[in-house]
Specification:
- The chain is an alpha/beta fold.
- It folds into two domains: about 160 residues, Rossmann fold; about 60 residues, DNA polymerase, domain 1.
- The strands form two sheets. The protein has a six-stranded parallel sheet, with helices on both faces. Strands 2-3 form a two-stranded antiparallel sheet.
- It is globular.
């Protein structure tokens, strides 16, 4: 049986695409439009990455009865203004093309609603690089699954027929590392995202990188170690 290609799973916001303030400004807009207090800039920044409903509850203290309306206002603002303001991080389009050209399978695993993730990637011409795109349910008023990110990463592995021994996750927040660990795959952290100071260093990551070139080297190193490990196991059988 032919072994499936190795799989690289990417987070979206803060990893592939810079929201350029569209997420935080959109949350502020939605809160203001409903007469709710807006958190400080640091708190708003920490809301990029986790499920929106979770952040509105935990970090913005939005009352339960107001959550659907606030989420709806945010989403309308994001579609009308936010996506157009975002942009891929430097070197990411070239990196994706290179990895795809080398025969790797690429996937996205994000807690952004899947339909919006697909639209955002298409807007920036990045969708063509991915074998599959996985996100949260489109109805953001539903409570996020307890193992939300882990479930989304698992879907990427299953769809691409990938094993944990031939896959790596790339992300900018603890949710990415935890989702990867829950599926038994290593995670590389990127510094250009939204992790607060010290968050990445406190995680069990196989590497932390500062730019796309270093990310390419880190991915190659992880996959090389996995290939060597698989070969050693096969020889021992």
């Amino acid at each position: 049986m032919t072994e499936s290609p190795a799989l690289v799973i990417f987070d979206l916001d803060g990893t592939l695409v810079d929201p350029a303030g569209s997420i935080t400004s959109g949350i502020a807009f939605a809160l203001k439009s409903h007469g709710l207090p807006v958190p400080d800039a640091t708190t708003l920044g920490s809301m990029v990455g986790p499920p929106l409903l979770e952040s509105l509850r935990r970090l913005a203290d939005v009352p339960e009865e107001a959550l659907p309306a606030v989420v709806h206002a945010y989403r309308r603002r994001y579609i009308s203004h936010g996506m157009a303001a975002s942009r891929p991080y430097a070197g990411i389009p070239e990196l994706l093309a290179q990895l795809r050209g080398e025969g790797l399978h690429l996937a996205v695993a994000t807690q952004k609603p899947q339909s919006l993730a697909e639209k955002l990637l298409k807007l920036h011409g990045l969708d063509r690089h991915f074998h599959s795109i996985h996100g949260a349910p489109d109805d953001e008023t539903l409570p996020p699954a307890p193992d939300g990110k882990a479930r989304i990463v698992r879907a990427a592995l299953t769809t691409n027929h990938a094993s944990a021994s031939r896959a790596v996750m790339v992300g900018d927040r603890r949710h990415d590392a935890h989702g990867a660990a829950a599926n038994g795959i290593p995670c590389i952290g990127v510094r250009w995202g939204f992790a607060p100071a010290g968050e990445l260093e406190a995680l069990a990551l196989v590497g932390i990188v500062d730019d796309a070139a270093a990310l390419r080297d880190a991915i190659a190193a992880v996959l090389s170690r996995q290939t060597a490990g698989t070969a050693a196991e096969t020889a021992a059988c």
